[in-house]
UniProtKB/TrEMBL annotation:
Keywords: ATP-binding, Ligase, Nucleotide-binding, Purine biosynthesis. Its EC number is 6.3.4.13. Pfam families: GARS_A (PF01071), GARS_C (PF02843), GARS_N (PF02844). Belongs to the GARS family. Residues 107-303 form the ATP-grasp domain. Pathway: Purine metabolism; IMP biosynthesis via de novo pathway; N(1)-(5-phospho-D-ribosyl)glycinamide from 5-phospho-alpha-D-ribose 1-diphosphate: step 2/2. This is Phosphoribosylamine--glycine ligase. It comes from the Bacteria. GO terms for biological process: 'de novo' IMP biosynthetic process; purine nucleobase biosynthetic process. It catalyses: 5-phospho-beta-D-ribosylamine + glycine + ATP = N(1)-(5-phospho-beta-D-ribosyl)glycinamide + ADP + phosphate + H(+).
Length: 419
């Protein structure tokens, strides 16, 4: 099978790594990719947001499957363009991707499907904003309605900050604060059948102890030793399947990866958000534990044959990933700095720990930073403690001037599990 992956993050590197290890994959292409993906896939300089260009590339490389990684191309209709060219595509249509593209649309679908989520108001004027903030009280949760790369959400105890964020956006969703640990649960679906993956936890805040601003995600781990073993089944029944059924009922079936961001509150599971694609950095740890070869699973979703798929097989290992970000991320990051130590990780830490590239590019013989999240170090181990140790040991070999990372990824969960 010839596969083309669209995107350039650590998520796409994780997807490409798994696909490159799949014996059914005979050729692997990626556009636009990054310096790390270049080691496992042939790169093509195609604009990921240009559906016609992506479809033309897929035709040219005779792809049997196209996998669209990020949300922006999905919301722009790239999966539709690929399917219109007669090529199977893993990723939802433009219309179904609105589940991520518009928080107001996601709320409407959840209401129709009876999916538990925070109570909310959609506001477009300062008066509506004030009314909604008053109605819920602190802490305030204010979300830009559109795509914002994980940075459009402000959770704050300060009404002035809440109001300022709301009034800087055209349309916002203001909602009830959900208290409780967060879980990211991904499911692969063909629009009818829903196959959940293993749950993971993401660390959204920039700094240790969940301080600092929200980011795209600074680290993740899986499994979740503290979670109820029935959680996945419960979320399948109350969240994932009803949402997929509702979108099919509307004539806009969702096929691809449905990502449920959940809060486990005292009153039960609530959806914080949906995404229409694999999460980053959770994908790095989920795929590190998936034993079933990936290409056949994604192709079955694209072809509508998931019901015939064998149950997924999982490793009992734990996995931890730690993101290395540029100076000033999630603000405008500093780029163009040399990254050292990548060869040492490959020589000393593989196969249990490895680097997945995000914002990197090759600059002559050097690999340099080219984005906010630069790379993520992923490691597996018998338990979270060992996976953590391996991840941080590998990370300590990498030098990038001014870079930042969290030191507490999976620390509490490992401690609580008594690993
Ligand atoms: P989102 O982009 O909707 O996932 O929001 C980013 C992050 O903001 C989430 O991972 C949560 O940590 C936080 N957040 C979003 N909505 C809420 C909420 N209703 N209550 C508490 N925290 C929230
Ligand atoms: N890790 C959060 C996201 O992918 O949106």
């Amino acid at each position: 099978m010839k596969v083309l992956v669209i995107g350039s993050g650590a998520r796409e590197h994780a997807l490409c790594r798994s696909l490159s290890l799949d014996p059914d994959v005979s050729a692997l292409h990626c556009a636009p990719g990054n310096a790390g993906i270049a080691e496992v896939a042939e790169l093509h300089a195609v604009d990921a947001l240009d559906g016609a260009a992506v479809a033309a590339l897929a035709t040219e490389v005779e792809a049997d499957l196209v996998v669209v990684g990020p949300e922006a191309p999905l919301v722009a209709g790239v999966a539709d363009a690929v399917r219109a060219a007669g090529i199977p595509c893993f990723g939802p249509s433009k219309e179904a991707a609105q589940l991520e593209g518009s928080k107001a649309f996601a709320k409407e679908v959840m209401a129709a499907a009876g999916v538990p989520t925070a109570r909310s108001y959609v506001c477009t004027t300062p008066d509506e904003v004030d009314e909604a903030l008053d109605a819920f009280g602190a802490p305030y949760v204010v979300k830009d309605d559109g795509l914002a790369a994980g940075k459009g959400v402000v959770v704050t105890g300060h009404i002035e900050a809440a109001r300022a964020h709301a009034n800087a956006c055209d349309r916002v969703v203001i909602e009830e604060y959900l208290d409780g640990p967060e879980v990211s649960l991904f499911a692969i679906t063909d629009g009818t059948t829903v196959v959940p993956l293993q749950p993971a936890q993401d660390f959204k805040r920039a700094l240790d102890n969940d301080e600092g601003p929200n980011t795209g995600g600074m680290g993740a781990y899986s499994p979740l030793p503290w979670a109820d073993p029935k959680l996945v089944d419960e979320v399948l029944q109350t969240v994932l399947q009803p949402t997929v059924d509702e979108l099919r009922r509307r004539g806009t079936p969702f096929s691809g990866l449905l990502y449920a961001g959940l809060a486990i509150t005292a009153r039960g599971v609530r959806v914080i958000e949906f995404n229409a694609r694999f999460g980053d950095p959770e994908t790095q740890v989920v795929l590190a534990r998936l034993k079933t070869p990936l290409a056949g699973v994604l192709l079955a979703a694209a072809n509508g044959t998931l019901a015939d798929l064998e149950p997924l097989r999982w490793s009992d290992d734990a996995a931890v990933t730690v993101v290395v970000a540029s100076h000033n991320y999630p603000g405008t990051p500093r780029t163009g700095d040399a990254i050292e130590g990548l060869d040492e990780v490959a020589a000393q830490d593989a196969p249990h720990a490895y680097v997945l590239h995000a914002g990197t590019k090759q600059d002559g013989p050097a690999v340099v930073s080219a984005g906010g999240r630069v790379l993520s170090v992923t490691a597996t181990g018998a338990d979270l403690t060992q996976a953590r140790e391996r991840a941080y040991t590998a990370l300590s070999r990498i030098q990038l001037e001014g870079s930042q990372h969290r030191t507490d990824i999976a620390a509490k969960a490992a401690e609580a599990a008594g690993d």
